[in-house]
Design brief:
The protein is mostly helical and about 280 residues long. It has one domain. The protein is built from 9 helices and 9 strands. The strands form 4 sheets. The chain has a 3-stranded antiparallel beta sheet. A two-stranded antiparallel ribbon has the order 1-2. A two-stranded antiparallel sheet has the order 6-7. β1 and β2 form a beta hairpin. The chain is globular and about 60 Å long.
Length: about 280
């Protein structure tokens, strides 16, 4: 019999049991905030803007992730309402987090008088990296997996053992998404200051197209998708993400004049692109 090799509990602080799921999500978010803080001066923003936004966005994102998951699993949680807040056991949806974060973003931008596209562009590497690291929390919790297969000999043994679930090896879809978002992160970090023609909003547009396409494919491989009737909810949202991202890049680039370029001198002197 194959047993788990990874304990869900990372460490204990007195009566508190700190789980790997929380450690990985918080760790990924922390690194992401640092990256956004460093990038802020290039986009009419300050480090204080980023910190203030994060103070509101992170808890809202966690609530949104859990609420989204609970809503689409209400048949279970209506019977066990005491488990609704148990996010530490897993059961959070990235799309719920992104929706909640977007609501906070537009409220924050309005009162702070900053362009929401600037925050979105700056946040993309942070979100990519946070998603890449956070998916390993699903790995520890044995979530976000695909169909049963005969073996996983092409993977390291610790992944094989953790992906042995309910008597079968499972396709590690968490790993595909983690690697896909990591590649997206690398591309943005490498290209955003090297391609001088990038316009405001296009880094975010790239995120929507990249992640939407990635998730559209991976969601079709999962066996634990959230469903609405016959539809996989995440695939519908993924398609919407791709369409919005396409608009942000192609329509705005060729149809809208005087869109500000992304690569401003540090301190934020404006430069515009005319179509």
């Amino acid at each position: 019999m194959i047993s788990l090799t990874i304990n869900k509990i990372a460490f204990e602080l007195g009566p508190l049991m700190i789980r790997w799921y929380a450690v990985l999500i918080v760790g990924g978010a922390g690194i992401g905030v640092w990256l956004a803080y460093k990038e802020a001066p290039y986009r009419h923003l300050t480090g204080e803007d980023i910190i203030d936004f994060v103070i509101w966005a992170v808890p809202s994102g966690l609530v949104g992730a859990r609420l989204y998951y609970v809503i689409f699993n209400w048949s279970y949680y209506s019977k066990y309402p005491n488990e609704i807040i148990a996010l530490w056991d897993g059961g959070g949806a990235i799309y719920g987090s992104l929706i909640a974060g977007s609501i906070v973003l537009f409220i924050f931008s309005y009162y702070r008088m900053v362009n929401p596209m600037d925050i979105l562009d700056v946040a993309v590497p942070a979100v990519f990296l946070g998603q890449s690291i956070g998916r390993w929390g699903n790995f520890v919790n044995q979530e976000a997996y695909g169909k049963a297969v005969e073996n996983l000999d092409w993977l390291p043994s610790f992944i094989q053992k953790q992906m042995y679930i309910d008597g079968s090896y499972r396709i590690p879809t968490f790993l595909f998404e983690s690697l896909g978002t990591l590649i997206g992160f690398i591309l943005v970090i490498f290209l955003r200051h090297r391609l001088k023609s990038i316009l405001r909003g296009e880094v975010f547009g790239f995120y929507l197209i990249w992640y939407g396409s990635l998730r559209l494919i991976i969601e079709g491989m999962r066996t634990d998708s959230l469903m609405f009737g016959m539809l996989r909810v995440s695939q519908v949202l993924s398609l919407i993400f791709v369409l919005i991202g396409t608009y942000l890049i192609f329509y705005r680039r060729f149809k809208i004049k005087n869109v500000e370029v992304y690569n401003l001198p540090k301190g934020g002197k404006k430069t515009c692109h005319s179509s």
